[in-house]
Specification:
By secondary structure, the chain is of the alpha+beta class. Among the domains are: 2-44 and 111-142 and 379-448, no CATH class; 146-213, Pdz3 Domain; 221-306, Pdz3 Domain. It has 13 helices and 18 strands. The chain has helices at residues 2-5, 11-41, 93-97, 101-105, 113-142, 182-190, 229-233, 252-261, 319-346, 357-369, 372-390, 398-411, 417-448; strands spanning 46-61, 67-81, 144-145, 151-154, 170-174, 177-178, 198-204, 207-213, 221-224, 240-244, 247-248, 267-273, 276-282, 285-290, 296-301, 304-306, 310-312, 314-315. The protein has a four-stranded antiparallel sheet, with helices on one face. Helix 2 (11-41) crosses helix 5 (113-142), helix 2 (11-41) packs across helix 10 and helix 5 packs across helix 9 (319-346). It is elongated, with a radius of gyration of 26 Å. The two termini are 22 Å apart. GO terms for molecular function: metal ion binding; metalloendopeptidase activity.
Amino acid sequence: MEFISDLPVVGGFLSSAIAFVVVLGVVVFVHEYGHYIVGRWCGIRAEVFSMGFGPRLGAWVDRRGTRWQVSALPLGGYVKFVGDTDGSSRTDPKHLEALSETERAHSFHGAALWRRALTVAAGPVANFILSILVFGLIALWAGVPADGARVGEVSVLPGQQASDLRRGDLILELNGAPVADFAELYEAANEMETAGPVRLLVERDGRRLELTTPFPLPPLVQGVEPLSAAANAGLKPGDFIRAADGERLHSFGDLRDVVLNSGGDELELEVVRGDVLLTLPITPREVERVNPDGTVETRVMIGVGGDVLIYPLTRTPTPWRALAIGVERMWEIITLSLTGIGHIIAGNLSVDNLQGPLGIAQISGASAAQGAGNLITLIAVISTAVGMLNLFPIPVLDGGHLLMFGYEAVAGRPPAESIMRIAMSLGLAMVLLLMLMATYNDLVRLLVS
């Protein structure tokens, strides 16, 4: 992706557009294939499997008679089953009557209720399965921390002496305080009044040694949030921020304090990138955030995550543990998303936080520029969000169809056709209004960035 973003004039746009098509294409294909394959297993024949909307760019027909096509507008997709009027699984009674008995037996609306419900639910479920698998594979690739505070890799900071720590050392104490794992190690470092060299008691080859090492939480950039002030300023993962607004930094906490005290005024950062010293102007922004405890906080931020000096030794988890990590990660995203939506409805969080297609495209391009790993992670995050949103009980979405099926199961008959038409129209209006609002937010962000 990086060579595309380097092209003059249109490079950044092309990079974002290609990354957006990749991310959304994978997520949409998995979602629609979930509908298609479970429908096929349930005896429901698909007439069209479309990636995108609008004019057809290319197509082929398989041996089962399904037309697989790619359309011009890459903002979604659909599966049109036999008996459907369109890709939203609406139908016209006259259209159903015109079908032969054989066609009606393989139509969506002629199938048993449980078969229709499984087919509809399969789309979001497929998205969740994709997310779990991706997060699980990431856990297998990156590994999980070994037991205890056992040292893996140790970074060498610009202008500072390398640490005497070695791979495999087991850290027992920091400044005399016992530590059982890296969480306690970093917590003890955070509680220090002044960031500076720390004394470590380590166990190495059965012997105990006292070592002095630089502060474990340096002003080192681990990740840059897309569309943030840091991204606009040109900060990159691996940057060492030596000073901010003329103040020498000794820890990532020092950087956080300078940003918070800036009041949103422009700062000048001294950044060491490899062997090059850069001066980057940056203007912090007020950002609303949903905290892990569910509260909403507004604070001045630049949008970077801090890296650490000492990485834990990792081990490869079992496949079952990796899948469990995938489920945990997916559930965290769902919980945080639902909490954020609840705060927006309650008025505690601004609707300006909604991202539309343009925003997702920018985030996709920025993620791709930071490496394939970031782009793959984004696919898992977006897949979780798409699966969750499609389960909302809004007509035209999968959750709306499931709600109607629930009514049919209780009442013994589907809702009246007139009610269905009204519900579908209202649902479509709600979705379009939400998309327009999110797109407006995207345009505003583009103009002010």
